[in-house]
Amino acid sequence: MPGIRLDAASYAVTGREILSNLSFTLTERRIAVIGRNGSGKTTLLRLMAGLIAPSSGTVQVEGMDPARDRKAMLDRLGILFQNPDHQIIFPTVGEELAFGLKQQGRTSDEAAGLVSDLLARHGRTHWEKAPVQTLSHGQRHFLCLLAILAMQPATILLDEPFAGFDMPTIARMSRMFDALPQRLIAITHAPHTAANADRVLWLEAGRIRADGRPGDVLPQFEAEMARMGAVDADTDLAL
Ligand SMILES: Nc1ncnc2c1ncn2[C@@H]1O[C@H](COP(=O)(O)OP(=O)(O)OP(=O)(O)O)[C@@H](O)[C@H]1O
C-alpha cells in the first residue's frame, strides 16, 4: 500500500468542519498543497502525520493508521513545522539530532556516530556541541530539517518551508530539497515554488478545489487569487 491515502476523511473541531470529505491517494514524489489562509492546509498536514485523527473517514500512510501506529511512522514520515521552536526540545544540536535516532532504536553510540556523519555531510561539524539558542531562526529551522533527514523517513511533510528566508537561503534550500530522494509534500503560498511539483492540490474551505498537474492547477489558482485581490480580500476568509 504505497503512499498516503485519505478516504472520505473529515476533521471537525467543536462542531465546525475544517476538512470535509477528502479522498485521494498521494504516490507522486513532489506534491504541493496550495490554498488561502485558513483553507485547512496545516490541518491536512497534521492529519496526514497522525498528529490528529479524522473525525470521520480514514487516513492511511503506507497502509497504516498514522494516528495509531506512531512507532511505525518514525521510519515513514517526518514533518517540518513552520516554527522550529515548536519542534526543538533539547539544549544542544547534537542532543536534538540524536533524539529521533534513539527513538528509532539506535544505541547512544550509534546515534552519536550518525549525528557526526550527518553534520559533516552538511558542513556543520562545528554545530555539534552548540547550544540551540545560539542559532538564528533560519539555522534552527535547518536543524529541524537535519533531525528529520537523520531519521530517513520515506515521506517529508513541509509546512511553508520557504517562509521567512532570504533569497540565497531559499535557493540553497530548493537545491537541497530537489536532491532529496524522499517524497515531499509541501504547503506553499508562492505558486512558483509549486511549478515543479508532480501534483498540486488546491484546498479551499477544507475541500479540494482542484487536483492535478501544476500547468493545469496553478493558472486557475493565480487567476482566482488575482480576482479576489481586486475585491475586498478579507471578507470571505473563514474564521
Ligand atoms: N485546533 C483548532 N481549533 C479551532 N479551529 C482550528 C483549529 N485548528 C485549525 N482551526 C481552524 O481551521 C481553519 C484552517 O486552519 P489551518 O491552519 O489548517 O489553515 P491554513 O490553510 O494552514 O492557513 P494559513 O495559510 O493561514 O497557515 C482555520 O479557520 C483555523 O482557525
UniProtKB/TrEMBL annotation:
It holds the Pfam family ABC_tran. GO terms for molecular function: ATP binding; ATP hydrolysis activity; ATPase-coupled transmembrane transporter activity. Keywords: ATP-binding, Nucleotide-binding, Transport. InterPro entries: AAA+_ATPase, ABC_transporter-like_ATP-bd, ABC_transpr_CbiO/EcfA_su, ECF_ABC_transporter_ATP-bd, P-loop_NTPase. Signal peptide: none annotated. The keyword Nuclease does not apply. CDD domains: ABC_cobalt_CbiO_domain1 (cd03225). SMART domains: AAA. It comes from the Bacteria. Residues 4-230 form the ABC transporter domain. GO terms for cellular component: ATP-binding cassette (ABC) transporter complex. PANTHER family: ENERGY-COUPLING FACTOR TRANSPORTER ATP-BINDING PROTEIN ECFA1 (PTHR43553:SF24), HEAVY METAL TRANSPORTER (PTHR43553). Belongs to the ABC transporter superfamily. This is ABC transporter ATP-binding protein. It comes from Rhizobium setariae.
